[in-house]
Here is the input.
Amino acid sequence: MLVAFLRFLISLPYSQSIRLSFRCTSIPASMGSAAREWVGFKQFPTATQDKLVDLFGKLKEQGVNTLTILVMGKGGVGKSSTVNSLIGERVMNVNSFQAEIVRPVMVSRLRSGFTINIIDTPGLVEGGYVNYPALELIKRFLLNKTIDVLLYVDRLDSYRVDDLDRQIVSAIADGFGKEIWSKSLLVLTHAQLCPPDDISYEVFTSRRSEAVLKTIRTGACIKKRESEDYPIPVGLVENSGRCNKNESDEKVLPNGVAWIPSLVEEIISIATNGSKAIVVDQKLIDGSGSNDRGKLLIPAVIGVQWFIVELIKRAIRADIAKGGRSL
Ligand SMILES: Nc1nc2c(ncn2[C@@H]2O[C@H](COP(=O)(O)OP(=O)(O)OP(=O)(O)O)[C@@H](O)[C@H]2O)c(=O)[nH]1
Ligand SMILES: [Mg+2]
Here is the structure.
């Protein structure tokens, strides 16, 4: 028992170093594809196209010709499906049963001088823990890019939030600075749902949204004043081909909202909300996130471990000496 405990203690710095070296492995960041003509745009119903032309036109009036959207969230929540829905093309593979992408992918589309970049990313949870290597990959991929909007994706039809959700939010804040949350939109997929018997769709969506938003505020340590200055909007999304449609053939939610133009409107309102876009430079990548701060604690942790091991060794030696004498 004692020997096993000693082994465990001695093994800690080793396992830690494995984890760090994995995190720091430099994998060349793909720069993503160059902007192609946005053919998927024409696949949207005319009513949606008209609304989008109007929205992008307003952006261009403000001198904004490019919009870069980062999509993050746990695995399987519908990140890639949402990218496909927004682009109107099946650009990302979607899989119900396993993780589909292992590194970030940027999709760029060009329409009438306006470029939309959407960066899809691997899920941020692996084996029940925050997937720090994935987060590191995402950061490196984003080097020299500017993020206008973060879509933080989760599911509307999950009923609970737990500590892992808070940890993910916290890891994003540590990795990119908590300011990234002032550029974020909470996207809840699977929004064509039937709520439990006793509550309406509106009440269900607002309760679920508030639960996730509260977790974001706690996880990213967002102060009340900050959350009032830059409230995080919520966008409801239904990616399924079975999504109901209105008379104009637009995909609509149970509350009647045509969600694609509505989501794009929210995205644009965040991009132009007055808070600074997130510039991912080398400083931010090398930055002093909590994990990097954690690295500074490693010598202290190793020191304490060494001290404990020495104490235990001495106790064992004393024990053996005592045992020897009693024989
Ligand atoms: N009904 C419904 N299914 C959805 C929705 N969004 C995604 N799905 C399904 O959920 C599964 C996972 O979707 P993905 O888009 O691959 O999820 P992801 O977050 O990209 O997953 P990873 O890349 O593995 O992290 C697929 O079977 C999708 O068809 C939605 O809004 N409604
Ligand atoms: Mg995906």
